[in-house]
């Protein structure tokens, strides 16, 4: 089966836009969020950069696109300004772009990383910031990239920021990133259920996560459950 939007072959579960239109996950996400649909030069650039990282990591890129699209679900509870929302979208989409500067023997290593390798891996937020902050009108997105591995209680990296020192977009992204990571299949494990991820997120309210971000997550639970359900690879037939 081929995507009825972009024409690419669908090798996993098709997504249903309506009763008769089937598409790949990339096109499905574009229908869910206006910032994924834009064709302005910056929107095109962010897509190219994510695809460049995919070439390095040998990934499909859907994690980055999912978390960008669905971080918007939380962000819209806090703001309406299109420019601020766009910066959060770009920051979430490009959160791992700094990994493009990590050596293959570390980035693609199959076994556990050594302490020194982890120290190098932990430089990816700063590398990403240095790359994206050079682009006009993307400085706020770059700050989200720089801060996406921080923790609300100050235990994260690279600068051990805490509380409101962390940009709001990064604080919202952290919750969605954890949800997507926990509920996604990995080569070494099956994804967890939404309810298990929900309990984990709630247990880290006030430590890893901003309480207001967790509250927004709970308020949007039905939308986010739908997100998780739509990416599950259930058996499908026409």
Automatic annotation (TrEMBL):
Transmembrane segments: none
SMART domains listed in its UniProt record: HDc
Annotated GO MF terms: phosphoric diester hydrolase activity
InterPro entries for the chain: Cyclic_di-GMP/3'3'-cGAMP_PDE (IPR052020), HD/PDEase_dom (IPR003607), HD_GYP_dom (IPR037522)
CDD domains attached to this UniProt entry: HDc
Domain HD-GYP: 38-233
Pfam families according to UniProt: HD_5
SUPFAM superfamilies, per database record: HD-domain/PDEase-like
PANTHER family cross-referenced by the UniProt entry: CYCLIC DI-GMP PHOSPHODIESTERASE TM_0186-RELATED, CYCLIC DI-GMP PHOSPHODIESTERASE VC_1348-RELATED
Protein name: HD domain-containing phosphohydrolase
């Amino acid at each position: 089966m081929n995507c009825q939007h972009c024409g690419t072959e669908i090798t996993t579960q098709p997504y249903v836009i309506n009763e008769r239109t089937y598409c790949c996950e990339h096109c499905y996400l574009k229908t869910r969020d206006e910032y994924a649909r834009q064709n302005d030069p910056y929107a095109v650039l962010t897509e190219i950069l994510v695809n460049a990282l995919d070439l390095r990591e040998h990934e499909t890129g859907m994690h980055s696109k999912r978390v960008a699209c669905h971080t918007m679900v939380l962000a819209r509870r806090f703001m309406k300004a299109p420019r601020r929302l766009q910066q959060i979208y770009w920051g979430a989409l490009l959160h791992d772009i700094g990994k493009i500067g990590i050596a293959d023997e570390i980035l693609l290593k199959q076994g556990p990383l050594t302490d020194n390798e982890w120290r190098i891996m932990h430089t990816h937020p700063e590398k990403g910031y240095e790359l994206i902050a050079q682009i006009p009108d993307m400085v706020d997105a770059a700050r989200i990239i720089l801060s996406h591995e921080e923790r609300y209680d100050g235990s994260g990296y690279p600068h051990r920021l805490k509380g409101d020192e962390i940009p709001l977009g990064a604080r919202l992204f952290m919750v969605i990133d954890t949800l997507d990571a926990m509920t996604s299949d990995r080569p070494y494990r099956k994804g967890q259920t939404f309810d298990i991820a929900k309990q984990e997120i709630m247990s880290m309210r006030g430590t890893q996560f901003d309480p207001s971000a967790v509250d927004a997550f709970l308020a949007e639970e039905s939308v986010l459950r739908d997100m998780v359900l739509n990416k599950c690879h259930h058996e499908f037939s026409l």
